[in-house]
Design a protein that fits this description.
Order of helices and strands: HHHEHEHEEEHEHEHEEEHEHEEHHHHHEE
Strand content: 5-15%
Strand order of the largest sheet: 2-1-3-7-8-12
CATH architecture of the largest domain: 3-Layer(aba) Sandwich
Helix content: 40-55%
Number of helices: 15
Radius of gyration: 32 Å
CATH topology of the largest domain: Rossmann fold
Largest sheet: 6 strands, mixed
Structural class: alpha/beta
Distance between the termini: 55 Å
Length: 489
C-alpha cells in the first residue's frame, strides 16, 4: 500500500497525456473531416476469385480483393463492419447478388458505396450485333452464361435502385457491352466544382478492359495490373493529379488507364464512365493525409505562384537543416509576408520528431533556439519528477517506520505517553514532508506533459500559412544560452 498513491499519480499523468494525444489525433487531419460533410457512411462490397470450378484459375484475384479492403479501412476510414468480403468458394452467383443487394440497399441518401470485383469477365454476342458483359462467379459456366453468371446490366440496375449518393464500381475484369456515359465535369478546383461534384448523385464505373481483352497479372507485382495501379493511385495518393488532397472517381479512372496501358504494353485498356445522367463525383480523401484542408469557399485567399518560388524555397530548406538563419538564405521579397515557408514533407518529419521528444522537431527545422528551450524544460521537469519520486518513496518508508514506532506490538521500547507523543509528532512531520513532495511531484509531471504538448502544438502551427518567426510574441534561447522572450507592438 505504501506505493499506492504514487502509482495513482503516475496513472493520472499518463491518462491526461493519452487524452491529449487522442484529442490531437482527432484534429490532426482537418481535410479528412471534410468527408463527414459529404458522406454519412461508407460501404463496400469486395469480391475476389482465384479457384474457379469450371474456368481456368487466377493467381492474385483474392490478394487483390484483400489489399483493396485493407486500403479502404486503413487509408480512407471505411469501417470494417461496413465491408463485405467474398472470396473463392463463397463467391457463388447467389452470394454475389445477395452481397450487391445488401450493400446497395443498406446505403442511405448521404452514403457512398465502393464495389470491387477481381475475377473473370466474359462477353456474350447478342443476335442484334451488340454485346452483353458478364461477371463469372466461382460456379459460373461459359457454356451457359445467362443461367450461371451475372450480367452487368443487372449490376447497373441495382445501382439505379439504390438511394446511395455516390457508387463506384471498380471491375478488375475485361468484358464487352459497356454502355457508359463518358461525360464529366470540367476539371478545376473552383468552389463551384467542389460543391457540384459532391452534392449531386453519381454512379461511376472503372473497368480493366473491354471485349476480347485479358487481364494481365504478374508474380513480381503480386497483383493484376489494374489493382496494382488502383493501389498506387489511392494507397499512395498518386491519382491526385491536381494535388488538392481530393481524389475523384474521374481522376482515379484516368490514372489507372494511363498506367495500366504502359504496364501491359497495350494488352488491355481500362475504361471509365458513368451509369445514367447523374454527374456527381465519387470522392476519396485519405484519413492519413497530413496537410490541412485548403479553404475552397469563394471568399478565401488562394496560395499564389508557389512554383515560381520553388527553387529558392528548396535552397532555404536545405540551408535551414544546417542551422543557418533566414536572412542569409533568401532576399527579403521572396519570404512570404505572413511568415516562413516549410515543405509539407519537412513539417511531417518534424511533427513525428516532436512526438519522440520535445525540441527534436525544432532542431530538424533549424530552429535551435526553441529546440534548446523545449528540451531543457522537459529534461528539468522530468529530472525533478524522478527526484521527487525518490523522495516520496523515502518519506513513505520513514512514515511507515514512524507509525510502527507508535504501535506497542511492533515497538517494545514504547512505554510512556511521552514516547508515544514524540513518535506521533515525528510521524506528522514526515507526513507533512511527504505531502509536500507529492504536490511537487504532481506539479513536475504536469509541467513535463505540458511542455511536451506545447512543443507538439508549436510544430503543428508551422502547417498554417499564418505561422511566422515574426509573431508578436516569441520565446527562445539566444546565442549566449539565455532564455529570451520578445514582445512586438
Amino acid at each position: 500500500m505504501k506505493n499506492y498513491k504514487n502509482i495513482i499519480c503516475i496513472l493520472g499523468l499518463f491518462s491526461a497525456l493519452l487524452a491529449e494525444v487522442d484529442s490531437a489525433m482527432e484534429v490532426a487531419n482537418e481535410k479528412f473531416s471534410f468527408i463527414n460533410s459529404i458522406y454519412s457512411e461508407s460501404w463496400a462490397l469486395v469480391i475476389g476469385i482465384n479457384k474457379y470450378q469450371n474456368v481456368e484459375p487466377l493467381n492474385y484475384a483474392v490478394n487483390d480483393a484483400i489489399a483493396v479492403k485493407d486500403m479502404l479501412v486503413d487509408k480512407y476510414g471505411f469501417k470494417d463492419t461496413n465491408i463485405k468480403l467474398i472470396t473463392d468458394e463463397e463467391a457463388t452467383k447467389d452470394n454475389i447478388l445477395k452481397g450487391f443487394s445488401d450493400i446497395l440497399t443498406q446505403a442511405k441518401e448521404k452514403d457512398r458505396v465502393v464495389v470491387f470485383y477481381a475475377g473473370h469477365g466474359e462477353t456474350y454476342k447478342l443476335p442484334s450485333g451488340g454485346d452483353m458483359g458478364y461477371l463469372i462467379p466461382v460456379d459460373g459456366n461459359l457454356d451457359n452464361l445467362y443461367l450461371s453468371s451475372i450480367p452487368m446490366k443487372s449490376v447497373y440496375d441495382i445501382a439505379d435502385m439504390s438511394y446511395a449518393k455516390h457508387i463506384l464500381y471498380l471491375v478488375d475484369a475485361c468484358y464487352g457491352g459497356l454502355t457508359l456515359n463518358t461525360r464529366g465535369l470540367k476539371k478545376d478546383t473552383t468552389p463551384e466544382y467542389i460543391q457540384k461534384m459532391t452534392k449531386e448523385r453519381g454512379r461511376q464505373v472503372i473497368t480493366a478492359g473491354g471485349k476480347d481483352e485479358q487481364v494481365i497479372e504478374k508474380p513480381e507485382w503480386g497483383h493484376s495490373a489494374f489493382t496494382r495501379n488502383l493501389i498506387k493511385g489511392l494507397g499512395d495518393g498518386l491519382a491526385d493529379e491536381n494535388m488538392d488532397g481530393i481524389i475523384t472517381g474521374d481522376e482515379l479512372g484516368g490514372f489507372i488507364k494511363n498506367r495500366v496501358v504502359v504496364d501491359v504494353d497495350g494488352a488491355h485498356t481500362p475504361q471509365k464512365g458513368r451509369i445514367g445522367s447523374d454527374m456527381g463525383e465519387f470522392v476519396f480523401i485519405s484519413e492519413t493525409l497530413d496537410e490541412q484542408f485548403a479553404d475552397n469557399t469563394p471568399g478565401s485567399e488562394q496560395l499564389s505562384d508557389l512554383e515560381s518560388e520553388m527553387a529558392e524555397i528548396k535552397k532555404l530548406l536545405k540551408l535551414q537543416a544546417q542551422g543557418r538563419g533566414e536572412s542569409e538564405l533568401l532576399p527579403k521579397k521572396s519570404i512570404p509576408k505572413n511568415g516562413k515557408s516549410y515543405s509539407p514533407n519537412k513539417i511531417k518529419t518534424a511533427s513525428k520528431l516532436a512526438w519522440v521528444f520535445p525540441g527534436m522537431g525544432h532542431y530538424y527545422t533549424g530552429r535551435a533556439g526553441k529546440g534548446i528551450l523545449f528540451t531543457g524544460l522537459e529534461v528539468i521537469s522530468v529530472a525533478a519528477y524522478i527526484g521527487l519520486s525518490n523522495d516520496y518513496e523515502r518519506y513513505s518508508q520513514e512514515y511507515q517506520i514512524a507509525l510502527d514506532n507508535m504501535d506497542p506490538e511492533k515497538n517494545p521500547s514504547l512505554k510512556t505517553d511521552v514516547d508515544y507523543e514524540n513518535y506521533k509528532l515525528e510521524a506528522r512531520r514526515i507526513l507533512s514532508k511527504k505531502v509536500s513532495v507529492q504536490a511537487g511531484q504532481i506539479a513536475a509531471g504536469t509541467v513535463a506533459v505540458g511542455v511536451w504538448l506545447w512543443n507538439i502544438r508549436d510544430i503543428k502551427k508551422m502547417k498554417s500559412n499564418n505561422y511566422s518567426h515574426e509573431n508578436n510574441f516569441s520565446v527562445g534561447v539566444n546565442r549566449n544560452g539565455q532564455i529570451e522572450a520578445r514582445i512586438r507592438f
